[in-house]
Amino acid sequence: MRIEYQPPKKRQPVFACFKALLRIFIRKVRVVTVGGDLKSPCLYLANHANKMGPMIYSMFFPEYHVKWGACQMFGGYRERYRYIRDVLYIQKNGSGRAVASFRAFFEAFFSQFVYRGIKLLPTYTDGRLARTVKKSVSLLGDGMSLMIFPENSEEGYKDRPESFFPGFVLAARAYKRAYGRDVVMRPVYYHKRKRLIAVGEPFTLPDTGAETKEDAAEVVRLKVNALCDRIEAGEFSCARK
């Protein structure tokens, strides 16, 4: 049975307890921002940082936000199990089938609740993406921020994403049509080894100077990867949250 998406509640006591438990095992991640304080609504464009990225953002990112996530994870147990086994572990992480099956068997039981807990809005690769865009614009219009992971991870997650899908451009354009102004966007990069999330300078879609949505996606990809370069160069080593 497919769970229908509802706008997330900011207070989720059960998931809050789950995150508190995770904090025992996960080292704290530092957050630095450049270009001013975080303000809602904002469209954050981030690297996925493999499996744990969305959870890390939920635990340590200081701004309340909703994320885009794979629609399969909101389906029934069998659909979730196949997605976790075949896509997440085998395709994207190169796991063997036996190991992938074992892990997916258990994770598929509770994954839908985790997905809802970390505030995920299901996305699609067909015409139903219009539904996701419409709900995204509504959330932004209500003053919520949105985080999208545009990277093409079909061949696995990369430390520096090699290409971005342009779906976020559709959301930005729809917001402009609905409210008559451009939504503010900011690049985000989570560096797993340095335990650091960097948030870049704000910009709007016209600021990219792109003529096509594919060009805009490439400009944003370079902004996200530039944050990675700045982290590895030690630019934020002494910065405070």
Which features does this protein show?
alpha/beta, 241 residues, seven-stranded mixed β-sheet
Structure described in brief:
This protein is of the alpha/beta class.
Structural summary, described in words:
With 241 residues, the protein is an alpha/beta fold. 41% of the residues lie in helices and 14% in strands. The protein contains seven helices and seven strands. The chain has helices at 13-22, 53-60, 77-91, 97-117, 129-141, 167-179, 213-232; strands at residues 30-33, 43-46, 65-70, 120-123, 145-148, 185-191, 196-199. The protein has a seven-stranded mixed β-sheet, sandwiched between helices. A hairpin with a 4-residue loop joins strand 6 (185-191) and strand 7 (196-199). The longest helix has 21 residues, at 97-117. The chain is globular and about 50 Å long. It starts with 12 loop residues before the first helix and ends in a 9-residue tail after the last helix. Mean pLDDT is 88; it is low at 1-5.
Q: How large is the count of helical segments?
A: 7
Annotation, overall tally of beta strands: 7
Report the helical percentage: 40-55%
Record the strand order, biggest sheet. Answer: 1-7-6-2-5-3-4
- Overall pLDDT metric: 88
Following the backbone from N to C, one meets helices and strands in this order, namely HEEHEHHEHEHEEH
In terms of DSSP E residues, the strand content is: 5-15%
Largest sheet: 7 strands, mixed
* Structural class by helix and strand composition: alpha/beta
What would the principal axes of the Cα set say about the shape? globular
Gyration radius (Cα, Å) is 17 Å
Uncertain segments are: 1-5
Ends apart, CA distance between termini: 42 Å
